[in-house]
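Chapter review: from sequence to fold.
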Amino acid sequence: MVPNRYFEDFEAGMVFEFGDYEVTESEMIAFAKAYDPQPFHTQPIPPENCGSDRLIASGWHTCAMTMRLMVDHFIPPATVMPSPGLEGLKWLSPVYPGDRLGIRITVLAARPSETKPDRGIVRLQVQTLNQRNDIVQDLIQPAFFRRRST
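The token string follows.
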């Protein structure tokens, strides 16, 4: 169960690490066929000269797996609010079948909202890592969290 963290529970420099998501070939292919049907995402042995000689996960699938880890381990349903988006999404290394993903979340900043006193804005760096601790994805997410009192 994810603890109910309120805006006041965050301060710059805090780090959270968790997750062990096994990436399977069948899930990669199913996701890619539905949402990103490029040959290096849909074929176990991609055609020559297509950009990769191995099956790799769609970056969008990596985002989805990261989100799953965040919901399962970090996002408190009672205190988080809809996000305004992402900043600086980068796919730094390919994700392969059999990889095991975890995430590291670093609080970059936290400030009360200037226009809505019921919430604060927590700026998070979310890094997705494989089993070798290689960063495969890096993004910045401003997140709204409820305040304990307004």
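Two observations follow directly from the output. The longest strand covers residues 100-112. The chain has one domain: 7-146.
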